[in-house]
Amino acid sequence: EGVDDGCGGGVSMQLLQYDLWTKFHNLSTEMIITKNGRRMFPVVKVKIRGLRPEKTYMVYLDMVAVDTRRYRYVYPSSRWMVAGTGEPLGQHTPYIHPDSPATGVQWMASPAVAFDRLKLTNNKTREVKGQIILHSMQKYRTRVWVQEVEAGACWGDLPHLVDQTHAHHASFPETTFITVTAYQNQQRTGEAS
Amino acid sequence: EGVDDGCGGGVSMQLLQYDLWTKFHNLSTEMIITKNGRRMFPVVKVKIRGLRPEKTYMVYLDMVAVDTRRYRYVYPSSRWMVAGTGEPLGQHTPYIHPDSPATGVQWMASPAVAFDRLKLTNNKTREVKGQIILHSMQKYRTRVWVQEVEAGACWGDLPHLVDQTHAHHASFPETTFITVTAYQNQQRTGEAS
DNA sequence: ATGTTTCCACCTAGGTGAAAACTT
DNA sequence: AAGTTTTCACCTAGGTGGAAACAT
């Protein structure tokens, strides 16, 4: 339940499927990205608490570039090694959770706010809705945001309402990953939760 | 754009895919229901106008039993004929549109509020969420409701908030159908919209 | 040759129409 | 035997891992 918070207030976010993520963190740490976009495995699921029930919030996610290095998987030792300098840190438009906007009651009633529709891609040419563009072979960490918006806000306008200076956030060390376009570690398997 | 309204106010609902529904009304008028639930074809899609932008509404749908007769498809003439008395008129819990609750802005921004997830069933034993239970071989008409609710309402509580006396409604003659468990009319085909 | 990306056949989940089964 | 219901194989859409292709 690693949690930092940006903005004071009692808002808390807890990463679910903690065992799965721990295993991921120990064994693999690699996340596939493809041209057409690939879903994350494991899926980021969080439990959100401490919202004001009647207020309206949107929830969104972005990937924090941990550094500007490039990584390579080295076979004899089966470890990730630094392999030079990567792309400079950039800002991408966050992925807005499809249930947004919704009231505090709704977000908290849900046992798990899941980002299972999110896709990761390396296709820089066309920006597709629902996909986050990342650089290959670089290290990222998942970060989730909760931001209050006006009750009348609608889905289409949400991207313009993103204001990270007035939002709560949490990032989860277990979700740190290195982007690949094909699995490097052969131990990687896809068991369900 | 057949519209009746229950409650005054400028709320209007228009049935979309009118050509498709007209063809349905002229050629077929039969709707499949199965044990496990079957989606409607055509799908009910409506355009909603005249809501107060900032207010919160839920939208739901029910099936009005047109009469208590039982119908049979007679082949030589290829027509539906009355074939005796059916089940008495009953009340079923309405199907709440999965986007509920949402603000007036959101409902009106959508070019078509579609009930494409709705399933119709003849399975009276277990009441399944997302399915409407109907009697076979009887005649029904689709009716759509719009009801204002408090901003803090959440999905799980909506069924208890249904109050048809304080809701707008519209029913569409073109959507009148007779329930069957297998197609009677061989001309029935499933072209897309 | 090695490291990286794209492509593609497999697999799965779920919806559909028609054959099979059931009923009266 | 006719009418009605259920079952089931086909089809489709979309996600996945490994094979093929590409690049350095």
Automatic annotation (TrEMBL), chains A, B:
Record localization: Nucleus
Cellular component GO terms held in the UniProt record: chromatin; nucleus
Any coiled-coil regions, as ranges: none
Location (main, coarse): nucleus
Keyword annotations from UniProtKB, A to Z: DNA-binding, Nucleus, Transcription, Transcription regulation
One BP annotation, GO: cell fate specification
Keyword Cytoplasm: no
Superkingdom assignment: Eukaryota
An annotated Gene Ontology molecular function: DNA-binding transcription factor activity, RNA polymerase II-specific
The T-box domain, residue ranges: 15-189
Protein name as it appears in the record: T-box domain-containing protein
Source organism (scientific name): Cherax quadricarinatus (Australian red claw crayfish)
Portion of the parent chain present: 154 to 346 of 346
